[in-house]
Amino acid sequence: MTLADLRAERLRSVFEGRALRVLGAQVGVMAARGMRVEETAVVVALVAWDPGAAEAVLQVESRRRLITLDEPDPAWSSSVRQWWSRLRYEAGAWWVVDEQDLSPDRWRPVS
C-alpha cells in the first residue's frame, strides 16, 4: 500500500472528521509533488485500548521508503512507530475520527 495511492473515496470509507481532513491534505500534497510512502512486511499490534474514550494505539513495524521524483527507487529502511486513533461507532460501522503518529516520548509500553 502506498500513501499516495489513497484516493478520497478510499479515505472516506474509513476516516471522518479531523482524520479525513488531515490525511486528505497530506495525500494531496504528496501527490502534487510526485511523492509517496511505501510500506511492506507490516506487523501491527494493539498496545493500548481505552473503551471509554474509544481510543487505540497501534504499534506498526515495517519496512518503509519514500519515493520521490529525484529518487524513484530508494533503499528500504526498518521502521517502528506508534499510531494513535480516536474511533466512533455510527450506523453499524467504526470510523477513525482523529489520528496521529506518536513521538517516541509518548509511546505506550508494549506488553
List its traits.
111 residues, alpha+beta, Nuclear Transport Factor 2, Chain: A, four-stranded antiparallel beta sheet
Kindly describe this structure.
- It is built from 2 helices and 4 strands.
- It is an alpha+beta fold and 111 residues long.
- The protein is 19% helix and 47% strand.
- Strands 1-2-3-4 form a 4-stranded antiparallel β-sheet, covered by helices on one side.
- It is globular, with a radius of gyration of 15 Å.
- The protein has one domain (3-103): Nuclear Transport Factor 2, Chain: A (Roll).
Largest sheet report: 4 strands, antiparallel
* Helix content class: 10-25%
Specify the overall morphology. Answer: globular
Q: How many helices does DSSP assign?
A: 2
Report the CATH architecture: Roll
Radius of gyration: 15 Å
Hey, roughly how much beta strand do the residues contain?
A: over 45%
Structural class estimated from helices and strands: alpha+beta
N-to-C CA distance: 28 Å
Major sheet strand order: 1-2-3-4
Name of the CATH first level: Alpha Beta
Number of strands: 4
Low-confidence stretches: none
User: What letter string, H or E per element, gives the SSE order?
Assistant: HHEEEE
